[in-house]
Amino acid sequence: MDLPFTVEQFTAVFERYNLAVWPAQILLGALGLIAVILAARPRPHFGRIVSLILGFFWIWMGLVYHLRFFAAINPAAHGFAALFALQGTAFLIVGTARGDLSFRYRQDIQGVTGALVLAYALVVYPLLGILFGHVYPAAPTFGLPCPTTIYTFGLLLWTGRKFPRLILAIPLIWSVIGFSAALTLGMVEDTGLLVTGLAATALIIRRDRSERASLSPMH
């Protein structure tokens, strides 16, 4: 995959971002943990709050990271910014305003996979980054596209019912784009992006088909 920037330019964007927004990373990480706790222990309106946090994350990534920082080395970032802002808006409309997204941890393959994906995004991802020499501030932190997209897949695996495909489509598209770039840039921790994207999509589609089959009239 040919990219319009070098590895050094790419990591320099992380450095500029991390230094410019500090200490926002602490707030983003705290919100990420809060959303996981609320999703795991469902109560009325918790789904709206989790959706609000996810919406904020995606709009932040689109307008702050892509538009303000990544666009300086990659013109395609303007398109990415629009996609991410659209994803954030979808979470706010579908999940927060309409209340059509519910989250709950279950002791099944979907719930356990979601928990593993969330652990990867929040804990394993930064540890792998350090292992492969991506040290703060020149490293992707939580709140940036790849770890936060992985995190999003983890929470979507905890959803309780079918939701509009747009909610899943844009993270899946980014998982392919991010993985392709990771191979070129040597961001080994980002290879988990495509794996989690494909696994989450397959499990969610299987769940929806199973629910549809269970609701179909017997013949």
Which descriptors would you attach to this protein?
mainly alpha; 219 residues; globular
Structural description of this entry:
With 219 residues, the chain is mostly helical. The chain has one domain. 72% of the residues lie in helices and 0% in strands. The protein is built from eight helices and no strands. It has helices at 7-21, 24-40, 46-69, 77-97, 109-131, 145-156, 166-185, 191-215. The radius of gyration is 17 Å and the shape is globular.
Task: Describe the main β-sheet briefly.
Answer: none
Choose one word for the global shape: globular
Strand content: under 5%
What is Rg? Answer: 17 Å
The first-to-last residue Cα distance is 51 Å
Number of domains: 1
How many E-type strands?
0
Task: Compute the average pLDDT.
Answer: 92
Low-confidence stretches: none
Short description:
The chain is mostly helical and about 220 residues long. The protein has one domain (about 5-210). Helix content is about 70%, strand content about 0%.
How do the strands and helices of this protein lay out in sequence?
Layout: H1 7-21, H2 24-40, H3 46-69, H4 77-97, H5 109-131, H6 145-156, H7 166-185, H8 191-215
